[in-house]
Amino acid sequence: MKKTLVLLFMLAVLLPSQAFAASSSAAQINKLYFEDYSAKVKEVKAAQKAYKAPVCSNVAALTSQYKQNTTKYNSLKKAKADKYTLSQAKTSLDQVKKNLSEVKKDCSSKTASMRKGSNDMLKDLDRYKAEMTKKMKAHLDGKGKMTSQEFDKFTDGVVSYINGRFKENLKMLNAPAAG
Which N-terminal stretch is annotated as signal sequence (predicted)? Predict the structure, then answer.
């Protein structure tokens, strides 16, 4: 009976102290320090979808011109215009088609390049965040060597660095940076 009471007493004393010594998780750290991280990633992704390289503004004008030249060429064919007029219309149509193709190619390559750069920046930021989360977790678990003030300074620096990178990414994509 005494052994049972001693065992119950030890359980009552030791279990709560072990519960208070529970380590912090990465999810808790993310919730505390990086609460709006996923919203900012979504904002960057939306800016990537909306991004059009400056050269892409010519695509609409050239597409309209191509449609007009196609209509003109087809109407000349139906009207059985002379060979010279028809060849001039065909040459003009081919030139506009070539220009449109070049501008579309340039537009898509520059847009893809910008999106790749933005995605690379997001990947780097994600790796940085993961490394800093490990350091924060180590400190909160009592394994770090920082004082409380140093840790506060450290977390402020990490958060401001991440926010700055998001603003830089949005600026690169010509989107307004929020917050």
Answer: 1-21
